[in-house]
Every structure is written in C-alpha cells, then in structure tokens.
Amino acid sequence: MTPRVFPRDFLWGVATSAYQIEGATGEGGRGESIWDRFASTPGAIADGSDGSVACDHYHRWREDLSLMRQLRVQAYRFSIAWTRVMPEGRGAVNATGLDFYDSLVDGLLEAGIRPFATLNHWDLPQRLQDQGGWSERGTAEAFVAYAEAVGMRLGDRVRDWATHNEPWCVATLGHEQGVHAPGRRDPVEALRASHHLLLSHGWAVPVLRRDSPGARVGIALNLVPGYPASPSEADREAARRFDGSFNRWYLDPIFRGSYPPDAVEDRRQAGNLPRGEMPWVEEPDLPAIAAPLDFLGVNYYSRAILRSDRVPEAANAPRALPEPSPDQVTDMGWEVYPQGLHDLLLRIHQEYQPAAVYVTECGAAFDSDQQPRLQLADARREAFLREHLLAAHRAITDGVPLAGFFVWTLIDNFEWAHGYSKRFGVVSLDRATLQRTPKASALWYARRISSNTVDDGAPPAFGRLA
Ligand code: FCB
C-alpha cells in the first residue's frame, strides 16, 4: 500500500452543528428556533424526536473537546446558534449565549485546535420566521446584526468564518419541499429565500472582516456533481437543469455576481417567477453577494445521476450509468462515489477559481440500526473516508488549492428530519446514557492525522467504484 502524503499545512478536522449536538434548548436564555418548532410538528421527524437533548454538548463540551484532542484533530468546525446570541432574532444580545461560545473557543485554542465557526447552520430564530423568515429581506438585515454581535465578541480569536451552511437546503428543503424547517412548500418563497440567504452572506462578509481583522471568510455549499444517465440529449439536458438549480444557483452569484441565465429561464418556464421577473433582486444586491472570499467550503456526500422524465423511457438511450445497487449506498440511500469529489473539486477550481477550498463536510451514515456497542467496528465508514481522502489527494495533485478536510461528524447526532435514526459519527453516542465511544474509524482518522497520509492500493470497498 502506498502512502499518499498530504501537504504539510493540510488541515484535518471534524464538523458539527449547534442544533444537532447542543441540546439544552431551554437553557442559557436561548430563544426558540425554527427547528424546535418544526420538530414539534407531528410527523415532521422520522422517529418523533427533537434536538432538546441531542448530544447534550452544551453541558458536555469539555468532554467533547478532550475527545477531539484524543483524535488529534487540528480544526473544529462548529456552528453558533443565533437563538443563543439573539433569542428574538434581532435586538437584545444575550451575553450568556455568547459566553458559551467564548469558553468553547478558548478551550479549543488552549487545546491547539483551530476554530472554524459557521453563523447559520439552519436554526433561524422562530421570531424571525413569524415575520416571514428567509423569504423576507428583513431577515438578511437581521443576520448582519447577528454576525456583528458574534464578530465583535469572538473575532479576536476565531480566524475562520463561514456565513451559511448549505443555503440550498434552507431554501429548497425548507421552503419548496417542506421536509426541513420551516416546512413551507412554495417554490417562489424558496427562490426569495435563496436570494436573501445569498444577500445576507454578501452583506456579512465585510462586517466579519471588520470585526475580525485578518480573518478568513467563506461559505459552505452542498454541491452535487450531476452525471447524465446516458449520453442522450434529453439526459444531458436533465443534468444541465439539475446543475443550474443545485450548484450554479449559488456558485454563480457568489463568484460571478450573476444568476445563471439558463437556470433563471428554467424557473421562468416553470412559472416560478412572478411576471417572469425576480422582483426581490435589487440593483446593488449581486455585486454585494460577490464579495471576494478567502475560501469556499464544499460539503460532499454523493453524486446525482440524471435521467430525463421528459422523454418516454423507451425513447431514451440505454442507461450508461445504472442506479446504484444496495451495497453501494449509505444508510441515507446516497451512492458512495468518491470520484465525484475529485471531479467536483477540479471543476470548481477551473470554473470559479476560489482562493482556497476546504471540504467542510464529508462522511457517511452506516450501521444506524445497531446498538452503539455493535457499531464500533465501522469498517465501511473507514473505507468511505479513505476513498474520499484519496480523491481529495488526487485533486490536490491536479492543482486544486484544497487546504483541509472536515469529517462529518464527530458524534452520532440529531440528523434533522431523520432524527436519531441515522448515525454519521466517528464517535458513537449511547442515547440512553449519552456516553461517547470512539468507533474504529475515529482511531483510524487519528492515525491519518498523525502521519498526514492516507494509504492507497486497497481494492475499492464499494463495488464498481473508481
Ligand atoms: C449536511 C448538513 C449536516 C448533516 C449532513 C449529513 O447536509 O450540513 O448538518 O446533516 O448533511
């Protein structure tokens, strides 16, 4: 087996988010978030659970910090709960909420772990939702005030900031498909939300730079490379449409200051633009959204295979890419496709030239239905991570300025609409006792970090994969 050596300053991290791990939703003056409200809606969460306890990280963060030390992680990507900082979404700042993150940041720095803070990992204050949430421009203004409050308090020590996590999920899953908070099903609202998320990002960038001088500012996008199922024109068209609405809808405004014209046209034809326009986009918005960034965060889990539904199956070309078989998917049903990470990173580098890139999330749910004790031998997660790290390494060799990799996630946690029924952690959580136990993949990851290498040469663990 050949060890692949990563660049000397390559950053090895783990990622989490506030609502998924903190619990203590009623403590420390925290306000209600849209995820508290959504999780209390009957049927919204697969196992009927919510984030009120989660990993109880709010009380056990010191223990989690020592776990990270044990795993030798060099960077920790976490999110700040807006509702802890500004319980009403705007106005009064809750000092107790900021104190929590202040201590966490100091603890990380003492442990030699670099804090990467994300301002919005989906848990919008419910009070802002009551006024229209992300579909209203006022929420973008409120976000900037929140960013300022956080930046002023932590900006002297946190040097790496992401404004948002995965705005596509907030806009589309939350406002069009209704499967995430706030549970809306309105395609026009979703488009408005996407714009206000982007706008708030662009507005917050200079604020963070001012309050955190010398810091690096970016955003984390979930990007999914789309491959046509066959070379037919219809399938290539399906892949173009997917890419336009999923990837370029965010990449183009951020890196080019414009929405992709073909994707706007798709929306127009779908009847999602009032009078054929986007009246919520104002003149100075796009230049603001294109504020130069220090890094792009890429969250990568899988690819999409696009088969046209516009021509009858019999009239289409035979599929070149079959649907993945059960041994090629994770417990989420997502195909394991490491080559997609390489393709995606290269494409982003060639088409958008971000100054630096981090894989801000990559990981897999496996053994979700097992008792915590039984999932400690998680060979498939180890193989998943190894193959994705090798794909990342190939991207570096091909010239991508990839500066680090964050495993999703540190500990099994509240996986949104799936509740606790999907386990992504490299550390197991016993929900009855809240005891944490590192899985084999965590110990493997620690060894990778110490050696700054990943071994190549093992046969691929997921069937036909490259
Ligand atoms: C991403 C989210 C993260 C986690 C993983 C599995 O979309 O950013 O919070 O749920 O998926």
Describe this protein's structure:
There is one protein chain. This protein has about 475 residues and is an alpha/beta fold. The protein contains 15 helices and 14 strands. β12 and β13 form a beta hairpin. It binds beta-D-fucopyranose. Beta-D-fucopyranose binds next to loops.
Low-confidence parts: none
Largest sheet: 8 strands, parallel, barrel
* Portion of residues within helices: 25-40%
Shape: globular
- Give the bound compounds: beta-D-fucopyranose
Strand order of the largest sheet: 2-3-4-5-6-8-10-11
Overall structural class, as computed from helix and strand content, comes to alpha/beta
% residues in beta strands: 5-15%
Instruction: Return Rg in Å.
Output: 21 Å
Order of helices and strands: EEHHHEHHEHHEHHEEHHHEEHEHEEEHE
Head-to-tail CA distance between termini: 17 Å
Question: On the 0-100 scale, what is the average pLDDT?
Answer: 97
By DSSP, the count of extended strands is: 14
Total helices: the number is 15
